[in-house]
Design a protein that fits this description.
Layout lengths: L3 H38 L4 E3 L1 E3 L2 H6 L8 E3 L5 E6 L5 E10 L12 E7 L4 E7 L7 E9 L5 E9 L2 E7 L10
Antiparallel strand pairs: 1-4, 2-3, 4-7, 5-6, 5-8, 8-9, 9-10
Length: about 180
């Protein structure tokens, strides 16, 4: 007559285990969402300082390059700006020439900055003139306060910005 008690006890234990698994999954999702919100409050985002291209050059696509923005010059140098909400830490940047012929030495200005606070600009020791006669890719990797790594990649052709990819997603620690 009491044969159903062990079976009922087993069913209750299975239901409790299922509820605990469901609760654990939900809690983990809430934790991830909270971490992402906290990261968004202090996420850096680096860009190159730009200015509008002359209207006739942009419309006529002078030098065969489409784009309405060019790399701005401050004292003849290129300027990087943090438009994010948090500081960019351990910034490593390089300008990689993309249009070199085989055997030519490619110009590759690069450097390191410890920190660029949110809203600040930094005048890099890279002459704007170097970028005026070639195709380059500006690449910068940097960290947020939490240690997450990010990357900005901007393509430049004769000073004209022709493409950008930045602040999409964090780079994992094992990527370089």
């Amino acid at each position: 007559m009491c044969n159903w008690i062990p079976a009922a006890n087993f069913i209750v234990q299975i239901l409790v285990l299922a509820a605990l698994v469901w609760y654990t999954i939900e809690t983990q999702q809430i934790r991830r969402a909270s971490q992402e919100q906290a990261e968004s409050l202090h996420k850096p985002c680096l860009i190159l300082l730009t200015e509008a291209r002359a209207g006739d050059e942009a419309i006529l696509e002078i030098d065969g390059h489409v784009g309405g923005m060019i790399v701005a010059a401050r004292n003849g140098d290129v300027v990087v700006r943090n438009v994010g909400t948090g500081p960019a830490i351990n910034v490593r940047y390089s300008f990689i020439q993309r249009d070199t012929k085989t055997g030519e030495n490619a110009a590759r200005p690069e450097g390191y900055l410890q920190i660029i606070p949110s809203g600040d600009r930094f005048e890099m020791p890279v002459s704007r003139g170097i970028l005026s006669n070639g195709e380059y890719e500006f690449a910068a990797t940097y960290e947020s306060l939490s240690g997450r790594r990010y990357q900005t990649v901007i393509t430049i052709a004769n000073l004209v910005l022709t493409g950008s990819n930045f602040c999409d997603r964090p780079i994992r620690k094992h990527e370089d």
